[in-house]
């Protein structure tokens, strides 16, 4: 692999142990993928930071990089951890708080931005053609598809190494010729946008290639977020093309196959109806809610009093609790549980509910798989109704 004199110096240890180790990781992975050189990145997003996922070995790996001098060379954001720092909720189990704090302190001291969110594009929207090194599959697919950023779907250690060196290997979706969409996917007219998360799970499960999804042009920003995150959760998708949305010049469209998704294809992803009288955990915020979604939830809640059949959980970026305090208080006054900087995919729940009702295909995928919960996918309004009406 060709390395510039600066990259060679990093590898030789002239910038310290952490930079050398980080460079070694990137070069080794790059070589195994046939990369001919490295590419400069403008934004790293570090996943693999939740103690409940990475455990003590993972935490040690991160602390080592910090203690031996690793510092951010580019703008870097951090994915959610497994605890809620807001103190505004009783759903997420905070018993791992000290272990998570150790990780978060090391990350913050390395100069990474402690947003603790899976929507890093909310903090720095990528420009078309910019190279990034992002972990967190939902963010990766959103960056490539909506913003035309260039990022592979990185694991936590590579994103960390890229943050410390400012480079990643030049392969995969960093190369224009690999950004080739070949499968055109359409949806039958009777499929409701409320279950767009289930559509995403079907695509992830059944298609390997990069897709063109014209129907996604009619979705709202939150719905697109949910669709793409679901595709990336049940499959290995890192990019899709939405004609009219995906920036031109960031992809090649060469359709080789056409697929129509029928209504009955997605039934099993939506989940079963649940009996009346079930205790319900309504969940919104996978990927994390943006300000507009919070406002929409507050608006939908106006006609209701307190929760009647369970609880409603919202998960938001860490700093929202301070920044949007009045709005958060309004939601709290309706009995909404709000967790900041975390989510049920990377944490543990305190209590078991009969069913989780959510608009998120990704949350449904992981809550079924990791927590063995019964989950039903539906629209935002219906999630709220399932708890409050
Ligand atoms: C499921 C997922 O969102 C969990 C994130 O956890 P972690 O940041 O990898 O610990 C990872 C992903 O989808 O890339």
UniProtKB/TrEMBL annotation:
This protein's UniProt keywords: Iron, Lyase
Top-level taxon of origin: Archaea
Reactions this protein catalyses: (R)-5-phosphomevalonate = (2E)-3-methyl-5-phosphooxypent-2-enoate + H2O
Top EC class for this record: lyase
Domain Phosphomevalonate dehydratase large subunit-like: 1-385
EC number of this enzyme: 4.2.1.182
The keyword Lyase appears for this protein: yes
GO MF terms held by the record: lyase activity
Membrane spanning residue stretches: none
InterPro entries: PMDh-L-like_dom
Family (UniProt): Belongs to the AcnX type II large subunit family.
Name this polypeptide is given: Phosphomevalonate dehydratase large subunit
Lineage: Archaea, Thermoproteota, Thermoprotei, Desulfurococcales, Desulfurococcaceae
């Amino acid at each position: 692999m060709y390395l510039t004199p600066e990259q060679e110096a990093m590898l030789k240890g002239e910038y310290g142990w952490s930079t050398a180790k980080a460079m070694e990781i990137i070069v080794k992975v790059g070589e195994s993928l046939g990369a001919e050189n490295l590419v400069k990145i403008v934004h790293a997003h570090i996943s693999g930071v939740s103690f409940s996922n990475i455990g003590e070995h993972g935490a040690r790996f991160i602390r080592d990089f910090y203690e031996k001098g690793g510092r951010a060379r580019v703008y870097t954001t951090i994915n959610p951890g497994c605890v809620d720092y807001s103190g505004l909720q009783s759903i997420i189990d905070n018993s791992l708080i000290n272990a998570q704090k150790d990780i978060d302190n090391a990350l913050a001291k390395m100069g990474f931005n402690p947003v603790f969110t899976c929507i890093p594009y909310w903090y720095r929207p990528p420009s078309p053609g910019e190279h990034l090194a992002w972990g967190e599959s939902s963010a990766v697919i959103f960056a490539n598809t909506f913003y035309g950023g260039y990022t592979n779907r990185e694991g936590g250690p590579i994103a960390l190494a890229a943050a410390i060196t400012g480079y990643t290997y030049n392969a995969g979706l960093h190369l224009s010729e690999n950004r080739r969409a070949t499968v055109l996917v359409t949806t039958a007219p009777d499929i409701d946008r409320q279950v767009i998360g289930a559509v995403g799970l079907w695509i992830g499960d059944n298609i390997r290639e990069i897709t063109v999804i014209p129907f996604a042009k009619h979705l709202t920003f939150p719905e697109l977020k949910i669709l793409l995150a679901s595709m990336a959760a049940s499959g290995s998708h890192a990019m899709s093309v939405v004609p009219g949305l995906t920036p031109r010049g960031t992809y090649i469209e060469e359709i080789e196959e056409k697929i129509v998704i029928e209504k009955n294809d997605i039934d099993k992803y939506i989940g079963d109806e649940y009996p009346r009288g079930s205790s319900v955990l309504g969940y919104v915020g996978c990927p994390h809610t943006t300000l507009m979604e919070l406002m929409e939830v507050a608006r939908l809640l106006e006609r209701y009093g307190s929760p009647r059949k369970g609880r409603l959980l919202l998960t938001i970026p860490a700093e929202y609790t301070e920044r949007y305090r009045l709005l958060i208080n309004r939601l709290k006054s309706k009995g909404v549980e709000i967790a900041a900087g975390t989510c049920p995919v990377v944490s543990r729940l305190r209590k078991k509910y009969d069913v989780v009702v959510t608009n998120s295909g990704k949350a449904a995928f992981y809550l079924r798989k990791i927590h063995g919960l019964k989950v039903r996918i539906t629209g935002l309004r219906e999630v709220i109704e399932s708890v409050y009406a």
